[in-house]
Amino acid sequence: MPRPVLLIFTDLDGTLLDHETYSHEAAAPALEALRGAGVPVILASSKTAAEIAPLRADLGLAAHPAIVENGAGILEPGAEAPRTGSRYRALRTALDQVPAPLRQRFRGFGDGGAHWIADATGLAPEAAALAAQRLYSEPGIWSGSEAEKTEFLAALRAQGVSGREGGRFLTLSFGASKAGQMAEIAARYSTPYMVALGDAPNDREMLEQADQGFIIANPHRAPMPPLDGEETGRIQRIAAAGPKGWNQAVLRVIADFGI
Ligand SMILES: [Mg+2]
């Protein structure tokens, strides 16, 4: 692939998409300018490939890879997401090797089914069905003690599976990270200057790894704690929220690069 002048990595909910309406309309001027300049925009989210693929197509970004399931995998360029994958099957197999008394304390998306996922996440049934189409990671709810959880995670670690806690869910994967996927995707484009945008602590590694990062305000959550790079200005905060803030930040970068 030809080396673009810039590469943009962006979170979705609360960053490129409005926290409440999920609209990206306010970012249209910056998105249009990037398209005109041939700058790829790489979507990076905790969403599944099945959730991201239609959105990526709607944004006119289907020619570019996307980072899915919080960095656990990459959705390759194309119109549609694969329905199943060998990594997820291997993860479910590893889970079933865990001794039964511990295994039964974890209820994953693959155990619960779409209705249970809808209840657990608050998603509408159709959205829950897309969130259930996992390829790389398994979120679930832990119902045992902390001591049992330590044992459960040790049994998984012996099989190469790691766990990450965030909000209500304990998410299992083979350990890939958003930062690792960023590096891999950047290499495909001959590693140009990287800009990242995000609104929440799960975007931290992406913001810190980029050459320039923007924290987009999200009035619906606690402010992001200070990040490495804010003192030097490598990471900046944008006061406007969601796609409006995204638009401002990206137009600033476009002006700085004279594109
Ligand atoms: Mg977000």
TrEMBL record:
Keyword RNA-binding: no
Molecular function GO labels: magnesium ion binding; mannosyl-3-phosphoglycerate phosphatase activity
Any Gene Ontology CC annotation: cytosol
GO biological processes: mannosylglycerate biosynthetic process
First and last residue of the signal peptide: none
Pfam family, one: Hydrolase_3
Keywords: Hydrolase, Magnesium, Metal-binding
Listed PANTHER family: HAD SUPERFAMILY HYDROLASE-LIKE, TYPE 3 (PTHR10000:SF8), PHOSPHOSERINE PHOSPHATASE (PTHR10000)
UniProt name for this protein: Mannosyl-3-phosphoglycerate phosphatase
